[in-house]
Amino acid sequence: MRAPTRALVSVAAAVGIAATGSLATAGTAMAATSPATPASASAATTWQAMDKVCKTYTALDGVTSQGQICAEVQKRVTDTGSVTGYRGRVALAPVNGYEMKPTTYHWNTGVGLSEVCAGGCAPQAGAWTSAWSPVNTAGSGPYKVQGEFGDGSLWDLHASWGAWQTADQTCLTYTAGKVCVRYEVRSYRDTPQERSRLTYTPVKGGYIIPMSIGVGSVIDGSTTVTTRTLCQPCTKQTTSYSATVSRNTPNPAGTNEYYATARFEHPNGKTSTLKASITG
């Protein structure tokens, strides 16, 4: 088992990390200049939709609508399919005389807060959309934008999601090949998620029979687990193989254990279980 100090890179990571690095400010052009020849087509980039989340807010009476706020993220994609950056913006649609004002945003990639408007945004009483943020090349991460209403109450909204990150893994090599189980985490909008990934790399003539994978946790002495049965039917895997099972992360804080498991059968009929875990 891995050292517990690797812990909530983990699930706290799932709450935040998606990649590490710094925010790029390379600009927000919609597309690169068209290539001179087809041979250089890989230089072309376009902005494509990635995620958009809208939420309607009510006044303190819980009934009267104050309007809708949307957070939107686009990804910059080359014509070969590579993603080279992300950008976000916020759109306001206040109603009934209410005002909305965005203040700051950030990407959950280790980058701090930035102002939505340089010098601060003015309160908006009508439909309004911010400029696109500078390009973020540190990873998609969730894009979180926040602000306040005219009465001083606060709002925040998330869009986008981070790449899966390996918090821990266990690998063993058998005569049939190499088997690994990984405990992976990410943030999906404002929701931390976790998953188990089983991978198998065979040697010539070798095989395994994957049986099940699970992702679980032990929180304050209580165990929960989500299991996926792979043996339906039982199938010999003679080539490279991968399978996952995922769920939203329960209570990603405190002193707990979060883990991934994988169970499989060897050619001799024996079964093995691998486990990767973190504690915090």
How would you sum up this structure, described in words?
This protein is mostly beta strands. Helix content is 2%, strand content 51%. The protein is built from one helix and 16 strands. The strands form four sheets. It has a four-stranded antiparallel β-sheet with strand order 1-2-3-6, with no helix packed on it. Strands 5-4-7-8 form a four-stranded antiparallel β-sheet, with no helix packed on it. Strands 9-10-11-14 form a four-stranded antiparallel β-sheet. The protein is elongated.
Strand tally is 16
Terminal residue distance: 14 Å
Quote the average pLDDT: 85
**Radius of gyration (Å):** 23 Å
Beta-strand content = over 45%
Strand order of the largest sheet: 1-2-3-6
Describe the secondary-structure layout.
Layout: H1 11-16, E1 45-58, E2 65-78, E3 83-94, E4 100-107, E5 114-115, E6 128-129, E7 143-149, E8 154-159, E9 165-174, E10 177-188, E11 191-202, E12 209-219, E13 222-229, E14 241-248, E15 257-265, E16 271-279
Antiparallel strand pairs: 1-2, 2-3, 3-6, 4-5, 4-7, 7-8, 9-10, 10-11, 11-14, 12-13, 12-15, 15-16
Q: Any key phrases for this structure?
A:
single chain, about 280 residues, mainly beta, four-stranded antiparallel beta sheet, about 50% strand, disordered N terminus
Summarize the structure.
With 280 residues, the chain is mainly beta.
